[in-house]
């Protein structure tokens, strides 16, 4: 079981879906730029609200 914050949300509740973050990353970069999966995962992890 994941730890909850004061209002009862888990860490998973405070983040955007992975597919949404992947789409945002792709839309923000030029079409000829690729981002490694590890880099995408790192960016997603950085965007989790604590």
TrEMBL record:
Domain of life: Eukaryota
Stretches of the chain forming a coiled coil according to its record: none
Domain Transcription factor CBF/NF-Y/archaeal histone, residue spans: 14-49
InterPro entries, alphabetized: CBFA_NFYB_domain (IPR003958), Dr1-like (IPR044255), Histone-fold (IPR009072)
Protein name listed in UniProt: Down-regulator of transcription 1
């Amino acid at each position: 079981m994941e730890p909850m914050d004061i209002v009862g949300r888990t860490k998973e509740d405070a983040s955007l879906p992975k597919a949404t973050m992947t789409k945002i990353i792709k839309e923000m970069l030029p079409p000829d730029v690729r981002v490694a999966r590890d880099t995408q995962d790192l960016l997603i992890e950085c965007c989790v609200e604590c």
